[in-house]
Every structure is written in structure tokens, then in C-alpha cells.
């Protein structure tokens, strides 16, 4: 296993946190209530903080003279390896919560495994992040129950978001060749082992929220190989504008 | 790995005088973010700090403040950010908890009470203003990621609670 294998593996994990962190930070000042606004902004901060730890490690591993800022802001769309789920837009609050919950459950399970990685940097980042992500999962899960078991309108919107975002859940468990190599070496996580408990956890919460599991068998993937949906270009241009206009800025 | 912070006696008072930029009544020592402080040859002072939360924006400021304060006392400061072992509210000193309460922030409780309170199952967090335990959760996140918002049903004040992190 080479450093480049590790770097690519880190992108597959950290880019999820970066893009979702960027997405939910769009809600800063626009949340439906002050409390949810503050909560989402805090979660964005957690995710971006975790991203920094990963990218600092990438900068260390890289043979090139780069910083965390180069990693975050100066890659092209194809070089980002986040799943399609996290780049989906903030259509309405139900979408925000469903996207968050679908990701948080996975994120928690992944970090639980990464805690036992042979790589000490992964261990440290996972241990730190787990404490934060357990709050995220509780927040998004509580809200999803509230929306599903709320008014007719909130239930209908939550169901719509579930039906639309469900197709992106399977990609969370897609293993690229690089993922396989890194997990075989004991550094990465074989996410295929997490799939059953993931869907069991989601099913049980949706039941409690009186929401239906979509019966679709069609799933979409691509992000982990750098092939993104049309939303990715827009989020990157928002994110990269400052750094490309004023090169050398620090975050 | 040791959980006890290892701080050289001659650096202790200096570091104790550096406040947390977001909660200025709390010293960074009482917050528990200083994990080690060592004096090396040539007056080099090496300090290791760990973040409360990954994205804590205060860490850069804390690092700069430590450097300024140590330089004032004739040291050549070196500050390193470490992630492991991860920070826990157990590292907050009793003095720190008291300072928090006097400032109007309810200090972190033990893990069980914390969970009960944050899930809205039990009313256990005492109001820092009037001591009443008749308080309810308003939001699991407050002004910063490390706090939750509560309301006292007796004196009607809202207040921040410093969440337990173990
Ligand atoms: Zn009160």
C-alpha cells in the first residue's frame, strides 16, 4: 500500500464531511428556527473541523509541497470522492434532515470501525469525531421522528425526501478498488459489512416515525469514483471562488 | 496513555493566566485543553493543546495567546495541536466548573444525568441562577457546539449548559 492509496482513501471519507459541512453551512442565518439554525451551523463546524484533521494528514503524506487549503479548495470536480448523497441540495427542511440522518447513521458506523484502524491518525480522528457525530445522529433522528409523526404536511414532505434520497444510500457501501486495498491492509473499513445493520437501523427509525421504506431496487452511484451530479459544480464554484480569486488565503 | 496533564511547575502560572477566548472566566488550564508543557534547553517552552471539538474556532486563538504570554516571560514558545487522547469534560477542573456556574453556564454533569437531560427524560440540570432543577431542554446545540440550551421554569431564565463529553 502506497501513500497515494492512503490519500485517495482519505478523500473518500473526508470529502463527505467537507461537502456536507459546506451544504449545511448554507443554512447559517436561514434555518427555519433559531435553534435549528444554530444546531446545523454547529454541525457544519464539527464536520469542517474533522475535514481539517484529515486534510492536514493528506498534506503530510503528499510528496508535493501542499497545505490543507490546497487539498480543500484547489482540486477539480473529478478529484473529489464524496458520495452523491451529501452534495444534494437543501431543497427544504425535510430534505436537510433526511440527508443528514441517512449520512449520520453511516458516518457513526464507519467511525466506530475506523477507531480500530492500524493507522494511528485514523484512530485519533475517529475517536474525536465519534463524540460529535453521536450528537448529530441524535439531532437528525429526533427531527425525522418529529416530521414523520407531526402534521400531515410535515409527514408528506419527509416521505418525499426519503423517496428522492433513498437511491443514494447504497453508494455509501460501494467499495472502490482503492477502498478494498486499504481495508485489506487493516487501515480502512470494509463498509459492505455495515450494510445490513445500517438498513436495519434506518428501517426501525422510519417505522417509529410512521414513514414508509421505498421499495425501489434502483440505486445511483458515481461520486466515489469522481463522477458527480449536476449539483457538485455549483457547490464547488461557491466554495472555491475566494481561493481561486485570491490565491493563498487561509481558512 | 496517561489522562493526567503533565505541566511543568514554572509554566503553570503563566498558562493559568491565559483565558478561553469564548468563556473568558475559564482558564485554559481549568478547561483541560493543555495536555503538556515542558521547558527544553535554550528557554524553549513546548506546549501541547487538544481541541474540545474538532471545529472549535478558539484553538487558533488559544495557540496564539499561549505564544504571546510565554514570550512575555522570556520563553521561546512552541505550540502543538494533538488529537489523541480526545478531550473529555472530565479534564475540566473543579475550579473551572465553579467559574462556569458563577458566569451563568451550568457545568457538565455526570454522563447518566447528562443523557437524561439531553433526551428530555429527566429534569436534573440545576439552573445556575436560582438552583432550581425544574429546567427543560430548549435545544441540544447552543451558542457553541460544546453547549446546549435550557430554560428554567421557575425563574424563567434561559441558560447554557456545558455538555458532558466522555
Ligand atoms: Zn432559575
TrEMBL record, chain A:
Gene Ontology molecular functions: phenylacetyl-CoA 1,2-epoxidase activity
Keywords attached to this entry: Oxidoreductase
EC number assigned by the record: 1.14.13.149
InterPro entries according to UniProt: Aromatic_CoA_ox/epox (IPR052703), Ferritin-like (IPR012347), Ferritin-like_SF (IPR009078), PaaA_PaaC (IPR007814), PaaC (IPR011882)
SUPFAM superfamilies: Ferritin-like
UniProt-listed PANTHER family: 1,2-PHENYLACETYL-COA EPOXIDASE, SUBUNIT C, PHENYLACETIC ACID DEGRADATION PROTEIN PAA
Protein name, UniProt field: Phenylacetate-CoA oxygenase subunit PaaC
Species this chain originates from: Psychroflexus longus
Automatic annotation (TrEMBL), chain B:
Ranges where the MIP18 family-like domain occurs: 10-72
InterPro entries: Fe-S_Maturation_MIP18, FSCA_dom_sf, MIP18-like, PaaD-like, Zn_ribbon_PaaD
Origin: domain of life: Bacteria
Gene3D superfamilies: Fe-S cluster assembly (FSCA)
Domain PaaD zinc beta ribbon residue range list: 113-163
Protein name stated in the entry: Phenylacetate-CoA oxygenase subunit PaaJ
Organism of derivation: Psychroflexus longus
Phylogenetic placement of the source organism: Bacteria, Pseudomonadati, Bacteroidota, Flavobacteriia, Flavobacteriales
Amino acid at each position: 500500500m502506497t501513500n497515494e492509496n492512503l490519500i485517495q482513501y482519505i478523500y473518500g471519507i473526508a470529502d463527505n464531511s467537507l461537502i456536507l459541512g459546506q451544504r449545511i453551512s448554507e443554512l447559517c442565518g436561514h434555518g427555519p428556527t433559531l435553534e435549528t439554525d444554530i444546531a446545523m451551523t454547529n454541525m457544519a463546524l464539527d464536520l469542517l473541523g474533522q475535514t481539517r484533521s484529515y486534510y492536514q494528514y493528506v498534506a503530510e503524506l503528499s510528496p508535493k509541497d501542499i497545505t490543507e487549503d490546497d487539498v480543500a479548495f484547489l482540486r477539480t470536480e473529478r478529484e473529489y470522492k464524496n458520495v452523491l448523497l451529501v452534495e444534494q441540495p437543501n431543497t427544504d427542511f425535510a430534505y436537510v434532515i433526511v440527508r443528514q440522518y441517512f449520512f449520520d447513521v453511516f458516518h457513526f458506523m464507519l467511525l466506530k470501525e475506523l477507531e480500530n484502524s492500524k493507522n494511528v491518525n485514523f484512530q485519533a480522528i475517529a475517536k474525536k469525531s465519534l463524540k460529535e457525530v453521536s450528537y448529530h445522529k441524535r439531532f437528525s433522528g429526533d427531527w425525522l421522528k418529529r416530521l414523520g409523526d407531526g402534521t400531515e404536511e410535515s409527514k408528506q414532505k419527509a416521505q418525499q425526501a426519503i423517496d428522492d434520497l433513498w437511491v443514494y444510500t447504497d453508494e455509501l457501501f460501494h467499495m472502490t478498488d482503492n477502498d478494498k486495498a486499504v481495508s485489506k491492509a487493516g487501515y480502512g473499513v470494509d463498509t459492505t459489512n455495515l450494510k445490513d445493520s445500517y438498513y436495519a437501523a434506518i428501517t426501525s427509525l422510519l417505522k417509529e416515525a410512521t414513514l414508509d421504506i421505498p421499495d425501489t431496487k434502483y440505486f445511483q452511484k458515481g461520486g466515489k469514483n469522481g463522477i458527480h451530479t449536476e449539483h457538485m459544480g455549483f457547490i464547488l464554484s461557491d466554495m472555491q471562488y475566494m481561493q481561486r480569486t485570491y490565491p493563498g488565503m487561509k481558512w | 496513555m496517561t489522562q493526567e496533564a503533565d505541566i511543568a511547575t514554572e509554566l503553570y502560572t503563566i498558562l493559568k493566566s491565559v483565558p478561553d477566548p469564548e468563556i473568558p472566566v475559564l482558564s485554559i488550564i481549568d478547561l483541560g485543553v493543555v495536555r503538556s508543557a515542558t521547558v527544553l534547553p535554550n528557554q524553549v517552552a513546548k506546549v501541547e493543546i487538544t481541541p474540545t471539538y474538532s471545529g472549535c474556532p478558539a484553538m487558533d486563538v488559544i495557540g496564539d495567546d499561549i505564544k504571546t504570554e510565554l514570550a512575555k516571560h522570556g520563553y521561546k514558545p512552541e505550540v502543538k495541536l494533538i488529537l489523541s487522547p480526545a478531550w473529555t469534560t472530565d479534564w475540566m477542573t473543579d475550579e473551572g466548573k465553579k467559574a462556569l456556574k458563577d458566569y451563568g453556564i451550568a457545568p457538565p454533569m455526570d454522563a447518566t444525568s447528562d443523557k437524561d437531560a439531553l433526551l428530555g427524560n429527566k429534569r436534573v440540570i440545576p439552573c445556575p441562577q436560582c438552583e432550581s432543577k425544574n429546567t427543560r431542554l430548549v435545544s441540544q446545540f447552543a451558542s457553541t457546539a460544546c453547549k446546549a440550551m435550557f430554560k428554567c421554569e421557575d425563574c424563567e431564565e434561559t441558560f447554557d449548559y456545558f455538555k458532558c463529553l466522555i
